[in-house]
Specification:
The complex is a heterodimer of chains A (184) and B (171). Chain A has five helices and five strands, in the order ββαααβββαα. A five-stranded antiparallel beta sheet of chain A has the order 2-1-5-4-3, with helices on both faces. Chain B has a four-stranded antiparallel beta sheet, with helices on one face. In chain B, β3 and β4 form a beta hairpin. The chains are: A alpha+beta (184), B alpha+beta (171).
Chain lengths: 184, 171
């Protein structure tokens, strides 16, 4: 299940961030406000944690995209090479041939999370953090999530009131993200 | 879907007309009829160019949704010549030339926004005004792809026009 969805702009600054804690907050009713206050500290903490996870994934996105564009000889930190990390996180053994795809595959695996990345041609990055559960998600499901997100982003870009590069504040986009976070 | 024949005649299917008419009216009513000084016209043209920039910037996002990542700059320009041009003008660029050092010349032998204008010299002086929007579109599309450029256009004989793209490299 996706616990965090993040959109990162051209200059690597986040333009949209939504994590499960906030999604829960939204679904909560007014009666729970008090208990929510008590949890606020915890919430801020997890938010920060997701922020950290996403930021650390950015470097890997850069590496992957670079490999994708040059496609041939890779001269970098060998431990960061997609095939090397591919072995570590598993399930992305086919990474080599997917280099020119927008979908970048699993980026890192932390204790209980897996981080997946996607970069559009226009250097907008999407990062989805998935919580590890007993039922592993299939690669195809992840792709579908990213495709949905990309479609929503394209719709957003077509909105003349949205200034490209500014932070996203759209109900329609919110709804898509909610469906991504709850749907799978 | 088969591409429509690239003729200059007035037999173009009606579904392609709205853009041409809208654009023609923008130039005619919006710019040519504002009988002011030269400076004013240039200001309006640069505004139109900016509208094109925005359009291209947003359009390329949508058009590239299902494509793979580009290999290099030439690959990007080729996309502009083919898919991008087809999306706007229902035809491809007829000729692409490059010096492989950041200059590209795109030639359209029958540019859609000029095709309804008399091919004689009568309106030749107004011709370039009809290209400002398209220059903006190209610049916007490239800019969103991380390539900053300068696009200028020239017309020699009426429905034929050339777009010169000069890539600005950070030094």
């Amino acid at each position: 299940m996706a616990v965090c969805v993040c959109v990162i702009g051209k200059d690597n600054g986040p333009i949209y961030m939504r994590s499960r804690s906030r999604a829960d907050e939204l679904s909560q009713t007014v009666e729970h406000n008090l208990s929510q206050m008590a949890f606020r500290g915890v919430t801020a903490n997890t938010e920060l944690q997701y922020n950290f996870i996403v930021s650390s994934a950015l470097d890997i996105i850069e590496e992957r995209a670079l490999v994708g564009s040059s496609a041939s000889g890779y001269k970098g930190n060998p431990s960061l090479h997609p095939s090397a990390s591919g072995g570590a996180v598993g399930s992305i053994d086919g990474q080599q041939l997917a280099t020119r795809e927008l979908y970048l595959g699993a980026l890192t695996a932390r204790e209980e999370y897996k981080v997946y990345g996607y970069m559009t041609n226009t250097k907008i990055k999407f990062v989805i953090v998935i919580e590890e559960t007993s039922i592993p998600l299939r690669e195809n499901d992840i792709r579908t999530m990213f495709r949905k997100l990309h479609s929503a982003f394209c719709d957003l870009m077509s909105n003349p009131f949205y200034l490209p590069g500014s932070s996203i504040n759209s109900k329609r986009f919110d709804a898509v993200v909610t469906s991504i976070m709850s749907g799978q | 879907m088969a591409l429509p024949p690239q003729s200059t005649s007035t037999t173009a299917p009606p579904d392609e007309l709205p853009l041409e008419l809208l654009h023609g009216e923008l130039i005619f009513s919006g710019i040519l009829l504002s009988k002011d000084k030269e400076g004013d016209i240039n200001e309006l043209l640069s505004k139109l160019e900016f509208i094109g920039f925005s359009t291209g910037y947003r359009l390329i996002e949508r058009l590239l949704k299902d494509s793979t990542r580009f290999k290099d700059e030439l690959d990007t320009i080729k996309f502009i010549c083919k898919d991008f041009w087809v999306a706007i003008y229902k035809k491809q660029i007829d000729n692409l030339r490059t010096n492989h050092q950041g200059t590209y010349v795109l030639q359209d032998n029958c540019f859609k926004l000029l095709s309804k204008i008399s091919a004689t010299k009568q309106y030749l002086e107004h011709g370039p005004k009809f290209l400002a929007f398209t220059c903006g579109i190209i610049r916007g599309a490239l800019s969103n792809l991380g390539i900053s450029s300068v696009v200028v256009a020239e017309i020699s004989t009426m429905p034929t026009c050339r777009f010169h793209i000069t890539i600005q490299r950070a030094t």
